[in-house]
Amino acid sequence: MRVFNAWTAALLLLLAGLASQPAAAQTAAAPAGAASAPAGIGTEYSEKGADTCLGCHDEEADTTTFTTAAIFKTRHAHRGNKASPFGAGGLQCEACHGPGGRHATKGSDKKRSINSLKSNSFLPVAERNATCLQCHENRSRTGWHAAAHERGALACTDCHRLHVERDAVLTKADQAEVCYSCHKKQRADFHKASTHPVRFGLMRCSDCHSAHGSPSSAMLIKPTLNQTCYACHADKRGPLLWEHAPVSEDCSLCHSAHGSVRNALLNKSPPLLCQQCHSQAGHPSVARTGGSLPGGSAGAQIFLLAGSCTNCHSQVHGSNHPAGAKLMR
Ligand code: HEC
Ligand code: HEC
Ligand code: HEC
Ligand code: HEC
Ligand code: HEC
Ligand code: HEC
Ligand code: HEC
Ligand code: HEC
Ligand code: HEC
Ligand code: HEC
Q1: 311 lines ligand 10 (CB under 6 A)
Q2: Taking CB atoms and a 6 Å cutoff, what residues make up the pocket around ligand 6?
Q3: In 3D, which of 77, 101, 74, 105 has the Cα closest to residue 90?
Q4: Can you give the pLDDT of all 329 residues of the chain as single tens digits?
Q5: N or C: which end of the chain has fewer CB within 10 A?
Q6: Among residues 71, 94, 93, 91, which one has the least CA distance to residue 82?
Q7: Ligand 8 surroundings by CB, under 6 angstroms
């Protein structure tokens, strides 16, 4: 028989008469990292599964922001999927909310007798997440790595809504709003003049970040920042005949990934951008000098007049032209 969760396991042990001390049995059966079933909840399941729950949590109990039955329009209600809460033999509502037998009896403390999975739950985050992780932990993309969001004690339900037909965080056009609720600076960045097209619903934060965590810095989807960029900007990867060293080193030496007030997501404007690394000294003289202008030294004025280094060195990302050594063609 399939063991669905810590509480089922504990119940089975109880039925088998193996556990004279329920608390110990629960601990033994709990999945790694999960705490034992909380005392207020108990181990009893409701008699008629979802039917018991829906007896009270019906349309009349719905609010403007919450519809119990909306869960039946989601993948969690796929009866054909044995792994889903509503699959054959599944624990239905109680697969997520835990044993609801005590909660369903008259006179019980309705709040403290059920795992509501909500942010105001009396249960600690780790225990709330454990109910989800028992089904989701081992799937490759869902691993909850020891990254910033887990360290920051986020609950699965800080991002996911389950009693809705479409979970906003899984929807391209709506995902960013979920993230912005905590990441206010990023909201400002993505409204600057030059950005990745997140605000038009054409890209998601999760095109670059693994919200569940990754071993990379800033939870990027690829092992390095550059590999993350190459996923879409393959033309910048090379190999090129004439490489520009900082490009293969780190795109963020010149670009900010989220947004910038300068064009092309640049974190400084040329010539300043370039002059962080290149000195003007020894730059070959060019025809249009500004040496004769008031107050000017020749070197400085070249760049004022020429406007930008990239007017001449247009191939900043490297060149494949036989004569492209100076990144001019
Ligand atoms: C006898 C009626 C009754 C039955 C049966 C019942 N509930 Fe409840 N439930 C309530 C009431 C009343 C509340 C409190 C609502 C409130 O105060 O906002 C509640 C609250 C909840 C909450 C939210 C708790 C919180 O902290 O806000 C969840 C989740 C819940 N029930 C799930 C279930 C599940 C799952 C079942 C089936 C196992 C179930 N209920 C069966 C009456 C019932
Ligand atoms: C796949 C997991 C899952 C299943 C299955 C599930 N729920 Fe929930 N439920 C949640 C989560 C998560 C929340 C917290 C609110 C949210 O994210 O939508 C919640 C919230 C609730 C609430 C509290 C609503 C409020 O805002 O006060 C009630 C009541 C509830 N569920 C009842 C049920 C009933 C009845 C069933 C079975 C028909 C059920 N749930 C099945 C995950 C689940
Ligand atoms: C009893 C096992 C079980 C439990 C408990 C469970 N899930 Fe799931 N979940 C599934 C299955 C099965 C699917 C469907 C996977 C598929 O179709 O590939 C799923 C799908 C999802 C999806 C993807 C939905 C979509 O539309 O693509 C999300 C997000 C999710 N679950 C989050 C949660 C969260 C958060 C919790 C805890 C509140 C939770 N699940 C609890 C089994 C479970
Ligand atoms: C910071 C927000 C955030 C938190 C917290 C979060 N998720 Fe997600 N989750 C996402 C995003 C974004 C996606 C879509 C990722 C994608 O499509 O590449 C996703 C996708 C999923 C999916 C469906 C795709 C898949 O990988 O199978 C499941 C299941 C899921 N999350 C479960 C969970 C569980 C379980 C937890 C808690 C341990 C959790 N999530 C916590 C943001 C979050
Ligand atoms: C409930 C609040 C909350 C939500 C919602 C949220 N985050 Fe976070 N996020 C945090 C916290 C807390 C940290 C850790 C901050 C710190 O360490 O300074 C964090 C850190 C991060 C980091 C930096 C990781 C690192 O290693 O530096 C990234 C990237 C990130 N979040 C992306 C996202 C994305 C993408 C979403 C939406 C899918 C999202 N967050 C939704 C709270 C949230
Ligand atoms: C084009 C890829 C890309 C997209 C899309 C993207 N990010 Fe990032 N994000 C990055 C990179 C790269 C870094 C690391 C910057 C660094 O280390 O220099 C980062 C860093 C972060 C950080 C860590 C703090 C910081 O600013 O350095 C947070 C938080 C974050 N991103 C949130 C988000 C959110 C929220 C979204 C969606 C609204 C989002 N990101 C979309 C690439 C992206
Ligand atoms: C998921 C795909 C994707 C990823 C990953 C990605 N980009 Fe982009 N990038 C785009 C799209 C789409 C555009 C917009 C193109 C357009 O508007 O024509 C864009 C535009 C740009 C632009 C030009 C912006 C402008 O205003 O002209 C720069 C610079 C850029 N990306 C740099 C990066 C860097 C650096 C990374 C890695 C941190 C990265 N991109 C990762 C898809 C991606
Ligand atoms: C030495 C600074 C520098 C580095 C490093 C750099 N870029 Fe750029 N990038 C620029 C400049 C300058 C422009 C604007 C060019 C223009 O105005 O014509 C630009 C423009 C772009 C554009 C938009 C125009 C185009 O060529 O498609 C994309 C996309 C882009 N960069 C991606 C990347 C990626 C991906 C990386 C890392 C692999 C990277 N850049 C590294 C300086 C740099
Ligand atoms: C983060 C430092 C850095 C930045 C910023 C930078 N460069 Fe470079 N650049 C280098 C390095 C390192 C080399 C390789 C020097 C060498 O091989 O001697 C180089 C090489 C060059 C060369 C070829 C020189 C030669 O002798 O072959 C040109 C031209 C050039 N850069 C122009 C630019 C322009 C234009 C910008 C601004 C858009 C810029 N660089 C920004 C570090 C930088
Ligand atoms: C008006 C055109 C023009 C502008 C503007 C310009 N350069 Fe150059 N640059 C040249 C020429 C021409 C060469 C020499 C090419 C050669 O020797 O083959 C050169 C060579 C270089 C070299 C290689 C130096 C060496 O010793 O070979 C670097 C580095 C460089 N430029 C960086 C810059 C930077 C940084 C800027 C902006 C601050 C800039 N250039 C603006 C035309 C220009």
Answers
A1: yes
A2: 176, 179, 183, 186, 190, 196, 198, 203, 205, 207-209, 217-218, 220, 225, 252, 257-258
A3: 77
A4: 333 444 444 433 333 333 333 333 233 333 433 344 556 788 899 999 999 999 999 999 999 999 999 999 999 999 999 999 999 889 999 999 999 999 999 889 999 999 999 988 999 998 899 899 889 886 544 567 778 898 888 999 999 999 999 999 999 999 999 999 999 999 999 999 999 999 999 999 999 999 998 889 999 999 999 999 999 999 999 899 999 999 999 999 999 999 999 999 999 988 889 989 998 766 765 444 444 444 445 444 444 444 478 889 999 999 999 999 999 99
A5: N
A6: 91
A7: 226, 229, 233, 236, 244, 246-247, 251, 253-255, 264, 266, 270, 310, 316-317
